[in-house]
Amino acid sequence: TKENPLHRSENLVLYPGPIKAHSEIFYNFPNPFINQTQIIYSLPENCSVILKVMDLNGKELKKWQYVNQSSGKHIIDFDREKISGGIYQCKLNAKGKSVFISKTIKMVCID
Predict the structure, then answer these.
(1) Which residues face 49 on adjacent strands?
(2) With contact defined as beta carbons under 8 Å apart, do 39 and 28 qualify?
(3) Do residues 86 and 106 touch, judged by C-beta distance below 8 A?
(4) Which of 22, 34, 49, 59 could form a disulfide with 66 if both were Cys (CB 3.0 to 4.6 A apart)?
(5) What b/e string do you get for 12-41 counting C-beta neighbours within 10 Å, with b at 16 or more?
(6) CB atoms within 10 A of CB 109
């Protein structure tokens, strides 16, 4: 039998070879978090960016907006402030000359 070049481990998908320069990266670390987490994302080109943290009902808790954010990796520190433990959504919308990115991740805050 031939080995499949795509290997899966739970929600992680491993692809052989290097990650392309235009790959989208969007996650938070640590997750779950207690007091603070870092929201990490990468842009393939300069983009207008809106990043929101919301509860599961869609209520906006924190918003960052950048008119012309540079390409590359970006890290935003998110402090828990007055939110209680639970599951939250973080939504990234980025629009450049040749890309539109809209991704949502789940973040878990524990007491």
Answers:
(1) 66, 94
(2) yes
(3) no
(4) 49
(5) eeeeeeeeeeeeeebebeeeebeeebebeb
(6) 20
Residue whose token pair is 């599961």: 56
Contact by Cβ (8 Å): 44, 96: yes
Look-up of token digits 């070049």: 5
Question: Which 8-state DSSP code applies to residue 107?
Answer: E
| Residues in the chain where the model's pLDDT stays below 70 | 1-24
Distance (Å, whole) CA 59 – CA 72: 29
Helices and strands: H and E segment counts in the chain: 0, 9
The strand pairing partners of 74, in sequence order, are 41
Amino acid 15: pLDDT: 36
Tokens linked to 93: 């919308």
pTM of the model: 0.77
